[in-house]
Amino acid sequence: MVTSTRVISTLAAIGLRITPPALVGPDHGWYTADVRVAPRPAPTKIALLTSILLLILLGWSSPGTSQEKIPLYYYYKVGGASPPYTSNNTHPLLDGAIIRPKWSQLEPTNRQFDWSVIEQQLADWTAGGKTVLLKPGPYSQTPLEGDPNGDNDETPKWVYDAGVPRLSFAGGGVAAGDTVSVPKVWDPAFYDLYEGYLRALSKQFGKDPRVAGWVIGVGHNGNLVAQPSESGAVAFLDAGWTPEAWEAHVKRILKMAVKFFKTKPIYLQFTPVLLRDYAVSDNLTTAQNIAAFAAVRSVSIIFSGLDEDVTTFNETGYPQIVAYLATVNTGAGFTIGFTDDWPLWVPEERSTDCPSPTCGRDVIGFATALQEAVDVWASVGGEFPMFYVFNESETSATNVDNGNFQQDVYDIAVQYLFPVP
Questions:
Q1: What is the DSSP string of 101-170?
Q2: Four-residue CA torsion sign, 370, 375, 376, 382
Q3: Contact 152, 142 (CB under 8 A)
Q4: Percentages (nearest 5) of helix, strand, coil residues in the chain
Q5: How far apart are CA 407 and CA 369, in angstroms?
Q6: Mean pLDDT, residues 326-353
Q7: Residue 74 pairs with which residues in a beta bridge?
Q8: Alpha carbon of 60 to those of 52, 56, 218, 257: distances in Å?
Q9: Which residues contact 53 (CB under 8 A, 6 or more apart)?
């Protein structure tokens, strides 16, 4: 373990602190105890910028790993984009992008595939010399415009024709209360259909050098959460959803992924809730079971839930899950990533718009969020390699070739992406 006391002191000066891994471990009961990132007062911008200079001079130490650079990926939301699909594809700090193809576009008819859309996305983005992680998923919460059933735009209609029940409800988020329908994915009729899709993806892109790995979709937007909206949660519960049923569903999908995607890394994206009002922290055993099931099969985990508020981050249950994983015999290549559904940094007009999901996500909030990941990583002595995933706003702000480049945001990112061993 190589944690510089000088760096810890520097971070403490602005209210950001690494917990030295030597102070935690199985002998201290951390995987069952109340493992949390220590809350810290909001640093001033002057103190924060001063600390950047100090970190440059003193050296930023990682928790005892050989990572020269923390890998960085970018959620490229191509759904609303127009070609060419080149957003940030020459970003100097990026290692790759995560692109979520739509099942309905790729398999418009059962077992008949159209790869043209994803082929163009891959060709355009990888022209910058970087690779892509593909994130196939079963459903979204965006209803097709004018659709009488409110079918979401990711699930092919033939899935319902094949006998998978529709779950309809007033959608949240982009649905804005409109009716949206999604498949009951834990229904037995669903699995053969989804397996066929994953098999075809692996056959088409499994050996494609442009595709570096897979973020396997199990629920809403391809994530662990089954349904985040209030009305949607009611519909899922009425259809028989339980944490136990969802755990079994996730494990079944992961078995498919391991079966088909044998040559490249596989990831699963965690969310702070399994279903609306079913927080991971309140269902920790279920979440730990899923995480361990993935980890022993070399399925890495992306933890979505970094926040400008440390207390909110602690409520995700992620510190406890990572601590638990340190007791598990994880498979080769297992890593942990950190991100959030919302941008980690936004311009002032959004960061000062309160209350809102991006309130407080200024440069100080950005540093706080990245430090949360480091704290969790350090709490297990850097047991697993780690990486970050940025959204569009902070990705563009840290791209020196982008018109939205922000020097202070870039400086923070560099300090967290390039630890000094």
A1: --HHHH-SBTTB---HHHHHHHHHHHTTS-EEEE---SB-S-BPTT-TT-BBSSS-THHHHTTPPEEEEE
A2: positive
A3: yes
A4: 40, 15, 45
A5: 18
A6: 98
A7: 97, 390
A8: 10, 7, 37, 37
A9: none
Of how many residues is the chain composed? Answer: 421
Q: For strand 96-99 and strand 131-134, is the pairing parallel, antiparallel, or unpaired?
A: parallel
Residue (of 267, 254, 332, 258) closest to 304 by Cα position? 267
- Compute the distance between CA of residue 133 and CA of residue 211 in angstroms, rounded to an integer: 6
pTM of the complete model: 0.88
- Residue burial 351-381, b: 16+ Cβ < 10 Å; e: rest: beeeeeebbbbbbbbbbbbbbbbbbbbbbbb
Q: Name the nearest CA neighbour of 131 among 80, 91, 84.
A: 91
Look-up: residue for tokens 């998923």? 137
The DSSP H or E segment spanning 99 is strand 96-99
Sequence letter at residue 375: D
pLDDT tens-digit series, residues 292-302: 999 999 999 99
Write out pLDDT tens, residues 112-143: 999 999 999 999 999 999 999 999 999 999 99
Q: Which amino acid is at 405?
A: F
| Token output for 89 | 């594809």
